[in-house]
Q: What sequence folds into this?
């Protein structure tokens, strides 16, 4: 049964990958990329990686797809027909693929319990984490404690993405040029009025999704979930709302400046735990310092706080990224088509000419 | 406090970045980021001066291989000190050469990205955990893409985007390589992987060979080894001054250090150069890179692009040193990495000073610079001498070590190629010198403006770095002695 | 040669499909799609390593407050590593798409060929201007 599911899903993935490659309508291609991620999440579940599946579904199928669509709204939706066959690419890919297949020949078989991966350091986590950390979800223990510094770095990556996208896209938006006339009000009303079902459903769903996010945040110790997934789900709810009611409706709820600050606060909370353990004379992120008599309690506290930091930064960064994409005016040099209304990209005529000038 | 230094080197810039986002005020942001870089430098230099036996720092309190380990040896401390110092000098350049939107309310994000990039690079150097390398590699890469895009011209966007695409392929290749190693060894700690590698049922497998290939290609892309170098010229030439001088001195150097560690520690010299006979292959690529980079540098019309192509040639020297697979080669590689980092950063800082004075970095526009901005021209000449490797500069000391390493192994052809490509360096440096000193300034060019006419914010750091590279060239024995012990340790697989 | 590695081959195919899209396509948005397929497939490679036949998700099954005996769990470590990789993937996608938007604004196109052609033309024009203005 499991084999049948795996084979079917893999067959879907292969088909999907080929279609994405051939599809020149980028809107379809990005939807298919989202579905690709979703099927991957299904396969991850079959392979017992529930946390990974959860995250992949939220990120790959959710956030990434929204970002692709937002980009398409600001750029073009058709890919040009290629002019010649990319022989070099075919050669490189064939060579790389052959090398990888050659490399798999000496690998332990899929699912083999005696593979080095299972008998190496992972054995310690699987056998000892109940005594040393005391959380049912082994993934959370490894993620936040044994390899807590990786997760700190991962939060750094997310924070960097927030900084990078803000640096790239927040310039030129009305907020940044004081004294400029206010932008024309973006009327969402027509779309919303046309979609009563979406409107009702989105409003009705919101509290449940937000509640679910909080549950995932708090329940990561016991089941799949944790700060990262919670943060993504929280923001996904807000983005869903924004897709239907316009980004300004979300901004009224979560002010942009505040969200920008929150990206930093989460990382500082995580790092703050590290600095605290350090000043208590232990190593960076050694949570047992928080409760020397009961190291397990220290672990619980530490993991709780850092997961909170992860949740805050992840949701704030995702929201900031959504804001800057959604509020970017479409500067149409060669008008191809109207922007997708549901992403809130309004056509604004004033084009900053700095780029063109600087290059001439 | 002292035992916490290994982690503080990385965490100080990493946690200052979010503080900058909270602060926002440009003046405060500038001062705080400089302070953070300086504090990190102080920590790194202290480590470099005091480390004897390798320091193992257990993050999270978990001993390796259960937890992630930071490991400071003389080699890592040397690289840490180098990177932090260069970062501090580059930060002095501030937001020169950025697009106006950065100075217009986005200064804090620019500095935050800079500190994140620094933290990423430092984290890669000091960690003893293979997967942790990947995480910090991505922090530094992502911030680099954004920083490069802040250059003034629109070409900065395409430069950054092409860098992002190639860089991500590189990063993903590294991830595949680490995954295959993990598959065969069951561990992520570098020394633990190295221990497993000596067993025949691990070290002899085809999976490990492929892991090696993927790690080498992945790092090769990031290192801009010929023919994987296409991203580099535009990324260096189009990025803002602080970014190009920082990247030129650190990014490829840190990756070079990673490559050294991958080859010498993870896989071990006997596997790489004995079993796989990788030395010849790498040597040939290095030669091609040396000549392709230097020849292309000769034909450039912009100063920054010239320096960028020269960097591709210099990467060739670095990988050539590694390809010898000898202790002397390792020593020469580490030494040249340091010498070239300082020289090239200094040259990019000079370029920033020149751009401030002239308004462009087109070489034709520098006619008569020897009269108009004599100090800038002079600083460039000093740097150029370092690039060529004229006696009395740090570049000479390291090139000499390279030559010695080549001759010690009987590689006469390599030695000849080294000399020949140094001649090419003479040509491309001379081209600029000729324009600066022997061409009449355009009639409408402003006359010499005295000491007030300089952009001291850029020329000051440049002169300090130039003097440092001369001092290191003349009085090199403390550094060479230090690097020699570091190289010995590294070559024997110590980390 | 062992037989239990066919699914790694499928994963290799998926990775290469992604890599092919990145390298062969000239549209930047499409390239990033290829990149994310490539990355997700690498995640699949790691997750496959973590599977133990007959195992279950790595969450202790509790029996009266302590883990029950005799239950086989799949390996948690690859899962932890891949959570990080997913984050890296979405972060790269976000920054890459941000860059694409700026490229589109600056060049009016997201096709690599068009952009390169414009750069080449601008460079030639710059050199010509300088030659005319110079001595």
A:
């Amino acid at each position: 049964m499991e084999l049948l599911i795996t084979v079917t899903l893999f067959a879907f993935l292969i088909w999907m990958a080929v279609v994405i490659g051939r599809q020149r309508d980028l809107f379809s291609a990005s939807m298919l990329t989202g579905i690709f991620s979703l099927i991957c999440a299904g396969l991850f579940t079959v392979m017992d990686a529930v946390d990974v599946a959860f995250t992949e579904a939220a990120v790959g199928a959710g956030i990434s797809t929204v970002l692709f669509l937002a980009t398409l709204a600001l750029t073009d939706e058709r890919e040009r027909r290629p002019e010649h066959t990319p022989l070099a690419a075919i050669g490189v890919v064939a060579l790389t693929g052959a090398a990888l297949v050659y490399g798999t020949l000496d690998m332990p078989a899929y699912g083999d319990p005696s593979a080095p991966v299972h008998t190496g350091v992972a054995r310690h986590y699987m056998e000892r984490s109940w005594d040393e950390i005391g959380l049912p979800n082994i993934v959370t223990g490894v993620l936040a404690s044994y390899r807590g510094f990786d997760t700190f770095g991962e939060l750094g990556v997310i924070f960097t993405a927030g900084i990078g996208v803000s640096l790239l896209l927040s310039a030129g938006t009305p907020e940044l040029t004081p004294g400029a006339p206010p932008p024309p009000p973006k009327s969402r009303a027509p779309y919303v009025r046309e979609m009563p079902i979406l409107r009702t459903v989105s409003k009705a769903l919101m509290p449940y999704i937000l509640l679910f996010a909080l549950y995932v945040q708090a329940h990561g110790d016991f089941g799949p979930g944790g700060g990262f997934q919670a943060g993504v789900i929280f923001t996904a709810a807000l983005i869903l709302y924004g897709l239907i009611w316009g980004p300004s409706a979300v901004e009224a709820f979560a002010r942009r400046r505040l969200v920008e600050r929150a990206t930093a606060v989460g990382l500082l909370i995580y790092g703050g735990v590290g600095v605290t353990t350090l000043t208590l004379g232990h190593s960076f992120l050694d949570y047992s310092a928080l409760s020397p008599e009961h190291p397990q309690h220290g672990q619980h506290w530490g993991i709780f706080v850092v997961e909170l930091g992860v949740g805050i930064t992840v949701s704030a960064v995702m929201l900031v990224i959504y804001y800057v994409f959604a509020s970017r005016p479409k500067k149409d040099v060669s008008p191809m088509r109207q922007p997708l209304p549901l992403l809130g990209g309004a056509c604004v005529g004033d084009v900053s000419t700095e780029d063109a000038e600087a290059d001439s | 406090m002292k035992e916490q230094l290994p982690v503080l080197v990385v965490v100080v810039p990493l946690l200052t970045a979010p503080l900058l986002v909270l602060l926002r005020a440009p003046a405060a942001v500038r001062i705080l980021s400089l302070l953070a870089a300086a504090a990190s430098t102080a920590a790194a230099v202290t480590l470099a001066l005091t480390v004897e036996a390798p320091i193992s720092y257990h993050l999270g309190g978990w001993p390796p291989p259960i937890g992630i380990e930071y490991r400071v040896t003389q080699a890592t401390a040397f690289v840490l000190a180098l990177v932090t110092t260069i970062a501090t000098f580059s930060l002095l350049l501030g937001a020169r050469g950025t697009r106006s939107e950065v100075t217009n309310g986005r200064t804090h994000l620019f500095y935050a990205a800079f500190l994140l990039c620094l933290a990423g690079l430092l984290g890669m150097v000091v960690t003893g955990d293979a997967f942790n390398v990947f995480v910090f590699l991505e922090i530094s890469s992502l911030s680099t893409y954004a920083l490069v895009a802040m250059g003034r011209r629109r070409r900065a966007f395409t430069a950054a985007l092409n860098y992002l695409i190639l860089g991500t392929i590189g990063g993903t290749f590294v991830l595949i390589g680490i995954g295959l190693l993990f598959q065969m060894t069951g561990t992520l700690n570098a020394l633990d992987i190295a221990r497993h590698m000596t067993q025949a049922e691990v070290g002899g497998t085809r999976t490990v060979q492929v892991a090696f290939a993927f790690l080498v290609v992945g790092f090769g892309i990031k290192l801009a080894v010929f023919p994987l170098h296409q991203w580099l010229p535009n990324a260096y030439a189009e990025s803002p001054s602080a970014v190009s001088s920082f990247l030129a001195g650190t990014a490829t150097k840190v990756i070079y250090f990673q490559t050294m560690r991958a080859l010498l520690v993870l896989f071990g010299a006997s596997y790489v150069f004995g079993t796989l006979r990788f030395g010849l292959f790498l040597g040939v690529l290095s030669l091609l890179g040396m000549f392709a980079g230097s020849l292309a540098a000769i034909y450039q019309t912009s100063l920054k692009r010239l320096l960028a192509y020269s960097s591709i040639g210099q990467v060739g020297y670095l990988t050539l040193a590694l390809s010898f697979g000898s202790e002397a080669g390792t020593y020469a590689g580490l030494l040249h990495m340091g010498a070239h980092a300082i020289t090239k950063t200094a040259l990019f800082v000079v370029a920033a000073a020149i751009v401030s004075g002239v308004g462009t970095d087109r070489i034709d526009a520098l006619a008569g610079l020897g009269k108009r901005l004599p100090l800038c021209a002079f600083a460039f000449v000093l740097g150029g001498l370092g690039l060529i490797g004229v006696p009395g500069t740090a570049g000479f000391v390291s090139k000499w070590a390279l030559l010695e390493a080549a001759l010690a192994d009987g590689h006469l052809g390599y030695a000849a190629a080294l000399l020949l490509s140094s001649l090419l360096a003479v040509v491309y440096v001379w081209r600029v010198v000729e324009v600066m000193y022997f061409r009449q300034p355009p009639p409408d060019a402003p006359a010499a403006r005295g000491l007030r006419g300089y952009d001291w914010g850029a020329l000051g750091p440049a002169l300090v770095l130039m003097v440092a590279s001369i001092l290191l060239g003349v009085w090199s024995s403390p550094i060479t002695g230090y690097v020699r012990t570091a190289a010995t340790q590294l070559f024997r697989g110590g980390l | 040669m062992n037989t239990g590695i066919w699914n790694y081959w499928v994963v290799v195919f998926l990775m290469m499909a992604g890599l092919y899209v990145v390298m062969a396509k000239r549209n930047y948005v499409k390239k990033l799609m290829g990149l994310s397929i490539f990355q997700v497939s690498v995640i699949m490679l790691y997750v496959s390593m973590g599977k133990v036949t007959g195992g279950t998700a790595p969450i202790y099954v509790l029996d009266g407050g302590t883990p029950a005996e005799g239950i086989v769990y799949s390996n948690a470590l690859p899962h932890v590593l891949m959570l990080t990789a997913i984050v890296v993937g979405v972060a790269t996608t976000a920054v890459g798409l941000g860059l694409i938007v700026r490229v589109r604004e600056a060049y009016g196109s997201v096709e690599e060929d068009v952009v390169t052609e414009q750069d080449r033309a601008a460079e030639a024009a710059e050199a010509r201007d300088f030659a005319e203005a110079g001595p």
User: Anything to note?
Assistant: Residues 295-326 of chain A form the longest helix (32 residues). The CA atoms of residues 74 and 243 of chain A lie 15 Å apart.
